[in-house]
TrEMBL record:
The gene is MPC1. The keyword Mitochondrion applies. It comes from Malassezia cuniculi. Keywords: Membrane, Mitochondrion, Mitochondrion inner membrane, Pyruvate, Transmembrane, Transmembrane helix, Transport. It is a multi-pass membrane protein. GO terms for biological process: pyruvate import into mitochondria. It is found in: Mitochondrion inner membrane. Its main location: mitochondrion. This is Mitochondrial pyruvate carrier. InterPro entries: MPC.
């Protein structure tokens, strides 16, 4: 039984979507100052949502799941790099007027506290 045919959206959708994780993996080598404080957490959440979708849809789309798993992992690493950069250079970045870095730390902190708040309810 052939799971994916070349005319299937279960094949071409994930293939086209692999551009996101490939770009995320290439961004891992870039400097922390280049990490977007808004786009990185957004892409991480986007991939987490669509990982669930790819798992729940029948038949399961494992190619799409793998694509979003790689992207969520890479974006998570980027979020960690951003938080690490902020905590290492927070005072210096704020003193020079780099509001992007200070807002990034606020986003990362809020994203880290959100699951804990949901569990405590």
């Amino acid at each position: 039984m052939l799971l994916f045919s070349q005319s299937s959206t279960h094949f071409w959708g994930p293939v086209a979507n692999w551009g996101l994780p490939i770009a995320a993996l290439s961004d891992l080598r870039k400097d922390e100052t280049m990490i977007s404080a808004t786009m990185t957490p957004t892409l991480c959440l986007y991939s987490l949502v669509f990982m669930r979708f790819a798992w729940r849809v029948q038949p399961r789309n494992l190619l799409l799941f793998a694509c979003h798993f790689v992207n969520a992992s890479a974006q998570g690493v980027q979020c960690a790099r951003l938080a690490n950069y902020h905590f290492r250079h927070g005072k210096d970045a704020t003193a020079t007027g780099d509001s992007k870095t200070s807002s990034a730390a606020a986003l990362v902190t809020a994203a880290a506290e959100a699951p804990a708040a949901a569990v405590s309810k």
